[in-house]
């Protein structure tokens, strides 16, 4: 049962018991519940209390409390709403975050509860229902926002219009949408959602809709009708753009004493230790004010602090320009923590003792015992009946592994894994670039380039994913089923690394080796070679220890019967001739410890996965050269806007979704977006920089992405930009475009000829051919007797099969097949001559800032694999420290490394 004390309102007895919104309004100094049918109708003369309860798949419930103050709300009702927000927080066990919302300045999170919009109504809320009859009143609204929309009623007159915003004119028979010429497509699309809402809720679905575009008048009767309502057309004056200089916000910390006085504290360097658990504090960041309440503060102290803050923002004249957020100790937001030095990166969610009864009651309502939370779903989210191919990256070449070898990977190498599986009415392709934890930088660069080139070759616009050893997604293991990861490597890059004096750790049957065994079933199990020392052991796992004399299987005391079964199967998979000695934890013989260099301490506690929050959706933007991230709250499939690049953060993996009308034209660029997102500590605390990054293209979303939405495949195939799509649906004239007819997103965007083919051929690593002179003649062989493959040869090997040996297994290296040939000698020589004389070629010259991968004003229509070629000779020398000719004499891996360091690759 929830905790209830004498000073808490009885309206909160059942608050938060179910997910979703609970809304109350202050009426005659009492809280009155608002019916669900009236959730989007807020009166400007009233104050409201809104509770949003979210029950994640794992972890405790999450609560957000908002108190909304209309522009005409009196001071008494405003004060009562803030007090009731504190009482509601206490009823929930002091584990909520509270927000103060002002009409017209609402937060993105608050507005996201009311899809498609919240339209304030003049007057005061009354719980008594009445009928309103009379003539339909014409109203005009302005709409602002691209993900959530602020709707505000404005006077019905020409002077209200401008060129920046969206306007809606609602008449008895027709709704007009007027789009300012400087508004964005997304803002126009959001405006149509409001039009749809008005049509359904105020017209019963029976009225006409007209879209008016600012500045266009020819041949449209709706335009004449619209302007006639204003007495005829007259030009809208253009406002001069305001120049706003960025001013870094000043940050000030105040202690709020028991009398409600704000006492300034030293703010040169804020530290977590400055916040005492029995006090309340205010952190003033200009545009946002945080109120921090210690765990041991009483409800009366919190009330005093709240009144003091309300008085402060009123006296300072900041009621309408500063967001106010109330945080309890242990529930600090990442942005709040970012203002303090050395705040721990990860904070475990804390359930206060006074809230445990409430939490227990909620879990009991869901059918769980609070001591035994539901286990995470381990069912694979992908069809595992598909076909797999694996290539090892050998610098500029790919080496196709045999069926027997493709589940035996090495930490010093990089691999491309292609998985073709049944999708929505057709076969889908997934490409993984697996980067071993011991691999060298040039192999990583080549792996991602190879993966992008292969993706470019597949007509169905495949999903690509960059993954690091040790951070593999669960479905990667489901696809490869029985996987063994060895130390060391076989690639030329790794072997060059060993020549620099490093110790070769490559696995050998003649050396001591220790494997950790893990998995969920015989069709999903892994053996990972770890350091052969005692500290690598863990009581939660089983291990295989290979020595020169014998083989041991070690069974951890906290491992399960399932783990023991996998252990026996994995021994047979590693080497069916082994006859292991089974050892249980605590009964190890001396020679067991001797093989591990002596007995030492190792983890003996049960490994428990931390709570995983439900996914968060972010919009990724580049503005003025800066990388911008904006969270989209309470998202749905409709928030995947075709003009956008969006990122779905699932904590253990992230997905970069690319709209077909977005500015991103390559999968490599999308991966770069994902990496930059991970580098933003403020937003993604606790996320590893090596978390898997998937790139998904609009119209080709795989089931392991769509599972995070209530997905409607028919919405994904409507033609046009977001505004055109919604207008067609609204008018019942939508046209669909089948997924296989969509223009695929190319992995590497470059100059194209009119028929759609590239004008510049590229190699399998996604870059231009080497600029080194190539002798003519078909018998030419580069060093190592290997040919540098063209894109066509890669495609041929991918989709026409590979040579087999007598055992029927594929063994031939992809790029060294005798049947693989370069283009004709004349074409090859011509291309090489063109590429090797970059300085003399008549290329357009662009500044470095426009050629960078992430640029505020990127150049279009160039070969993105050779950005450096478009630099002037002077700027090239300045950035690279050498002439272009010297640069082209470097090995390809060194060129790429230099280009990556300069954000040109």
From TrEMBL:
Residues 749-763 have a biased composition (Polar residues). Pfam families: Gelsolin (PF00626), VHP (PF02209). GO terms for biological process: actin filament capping; actin filament organization. Transmembrane segments: none annotated. One of its GO terms (molecular function) is actin filament binding. Residues 764-779, 811-825 have a biased composition (Low complexity). Residues 740-836 are annotated as: Disordered. The keyword Repeat applies. The keyword Repeat applies. InterPro entries: ADF-H/Gelsolin-like_dom_sf (IPR029006), Gelsolin-like_dom (IPR007123), Villin/Gelsolin (IPR007122), Villin_headpiece (IPR003128), Villin_headpiece_dom_sf (IPR036886). SMART domains: GEL (SM00262), VHP (SM00153). Residues 840-905 form the HP domain. Keywords: Actin capping, Repeat. PANTHER family: VILLIN, VILLIN-1. This is HP domain-containing protein. It comes from Crotalaria pallida. The lineage of its organism: Eukaryota, Viridiplantae, Streptophyta, Embryophyta, Tracheophyta.
């Amino acid at each position: 049962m929830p905790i209830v004390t004498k000073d808490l309102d009885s309206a909160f007895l059942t608050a938060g018991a179910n997910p979703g919104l609970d809304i109350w309004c202050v009426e005659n100094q009492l809280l009155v519940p608002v019916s669900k049918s009236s959730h989007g109708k807020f009166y400007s003369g009233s104050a409201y209390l809104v509770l949003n309860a979210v029950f994640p798949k794992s972890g405790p419930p999450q609560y957000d409390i908002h108190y909304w103050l209309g522009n005409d709300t009196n001071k008494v009702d405003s004060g009562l709403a803030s007090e009731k927000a504190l009482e509601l927080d206490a009823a929930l066990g002091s584990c909520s975050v509270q927000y103060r919302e002002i009409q017209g300045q609402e937060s993105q999170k608050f507005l996201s509860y009311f899809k498609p919009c919240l339209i304030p109504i003049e007057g005061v809320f009354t719980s008594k229902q009445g009928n309103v009859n009379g003539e339909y009143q014409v109203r005009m609204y302005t709409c602002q926002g691209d993900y959530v929309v602020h709707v505000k009623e404005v006077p019905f007159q020409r002077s209200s219009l401008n060129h920046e915003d969206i306007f809606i004119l609602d008449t008895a028979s027709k709704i007009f949408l007027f789009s300012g010429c400087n508004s964005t497509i997304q803002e126009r699309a959001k405006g149509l959602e409001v039009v749809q809402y008005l049509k359904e809720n105020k017209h019963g679905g029976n009225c006409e809709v007209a879209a008016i575009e600012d500045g266009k008048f020819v041949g449209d009767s709706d335009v004449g009708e619209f302007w006639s309502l204003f007495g005829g057309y007259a030009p809208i004056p253009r406002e001069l753009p305001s120049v706003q200089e960025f001013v870094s916000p000043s940050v000030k910390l105040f202690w709020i004493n028991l009398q409600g006085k704000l006492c300034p504290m030293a703010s040169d360097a804020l530290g977590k230790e400055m916040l005492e658990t029995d006090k309340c504090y205010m952190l003033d960041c200009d545009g946002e004010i945080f109120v921090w309440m210690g765990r041991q503060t009483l409800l009366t102290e919190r009330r005093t602090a709240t009144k003091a803050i309300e008085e402060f923002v009123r006296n300072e004249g900041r009621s309408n320009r500063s967001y106010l957020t109330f945080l309890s100790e242990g529930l600090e937001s990442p942005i709040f923590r970012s203002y303090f030095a050395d705040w721990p990166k990860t904070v475990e969610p804390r359930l206060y003792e006074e809230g445990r009864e409430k939490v227990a009651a909620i879990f009991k309502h869901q059918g769980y015992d609070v001591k035994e939370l539901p286990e995470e779903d381990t069912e694979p989210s992908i069809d595992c009946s598909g076909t797999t191919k694996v290539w090892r990256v050998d610098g500029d070449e790919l080496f196709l592994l045999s069926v027997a070898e493709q589940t035996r990977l090495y930490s010093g190498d990089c691999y491309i894994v292609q998985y073709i599986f049944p999708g929505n009415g057709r076969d889908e392709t997934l490409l993984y670039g697996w980067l071993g934890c011991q691999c060298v930088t040039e192999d990583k660069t080549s792996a991602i380039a190879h993966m992008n080139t292969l993706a470019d070759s597949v007509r169905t616009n495949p999903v690509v994913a960059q993954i690091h050893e040790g951070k593999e997604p669960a479905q990667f293991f489901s696809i490869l089923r029985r996987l063994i990861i060895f130390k060391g490597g076989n690639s030329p890059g790794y072997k060059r690394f060993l020549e620099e004096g490093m110790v070769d750790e490559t696995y050998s049957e003649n050396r001591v080796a220790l494997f950790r065994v893990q998995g969920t079933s015989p069709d999903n199990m892994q053996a990972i070679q770890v350091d052969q020392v005692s500290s690598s052991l863990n009581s939660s796992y089983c291990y295989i220890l290979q020595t020169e004399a014998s083989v041991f299987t070690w069974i951890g005391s906290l491992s399960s019967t399932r783990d023991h079964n996998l252990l026996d199967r994995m021994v047979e998979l590693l080497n069916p001739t082994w006859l292991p000695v089974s050892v249980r934890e605590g009964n190890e013989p001396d020679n067991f410890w001797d093989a591990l260099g002596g007995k030492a301490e190792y983890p003996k506690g049960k490994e428990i996965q931390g709570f995983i929050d439900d996914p968060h959706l972010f919009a990724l933007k580049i503005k003025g050269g800066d990388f911008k991230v904006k969270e989209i709250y309470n998202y749905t499939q409709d928030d995947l806007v075709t003009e956008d690049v969006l990122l779905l953060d699932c904590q253990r993996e992230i997905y970069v979704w690319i709209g077909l009308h977005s500015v991103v034209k390559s999968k490599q660029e999308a991966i770069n977006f994902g990496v930059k997102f991970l580098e933003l500590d403020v937003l993604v605390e606790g996320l590893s920089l090596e978390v898997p990054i998937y790139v998904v293209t609009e119209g080709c979303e795989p089931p392991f992405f769509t599972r995070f939405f209530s997905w409607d495949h028919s919405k994904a195939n409507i033609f046009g930009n977001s505004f055109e799509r919604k207008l067609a649906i609204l008018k019942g004239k939508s046209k669909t475009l089948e997924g296989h007819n969509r223009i695929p997103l190319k992995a590497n965007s470059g100059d194209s000829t009119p028929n759609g083919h590239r004008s510049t051929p590229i190699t399998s690593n996604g870059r231009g051919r080497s600029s080194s002179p190539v002798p003519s003649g078909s018998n030419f062989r580069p060093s190592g007797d290997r040919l540098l493959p063209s894109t066509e040869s890669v495609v041929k090997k991918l989709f026409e099969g590979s040579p087999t040996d007598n055992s029927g297994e594929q063994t031939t290296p992809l790029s060294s097949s005798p049947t693989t040939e370069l283009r004709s000698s004349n074409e090859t020589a011509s291309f090489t001559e063109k590429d090797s004389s970059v300085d003399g070629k008549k290329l357009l010259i662009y500044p470095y800032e426009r050629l960078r991968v992430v640029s505020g004003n990127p150049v279009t229509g160039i070969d993105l694999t050779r950005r450096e070629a478009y630099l002037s000779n002077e700027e090239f020398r300045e950035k690279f420290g050498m002439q272009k000719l010297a640069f082209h004499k470097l090995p390809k891996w060194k060129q790429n490394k230099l280009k990556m360091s300069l954000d040109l690759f």
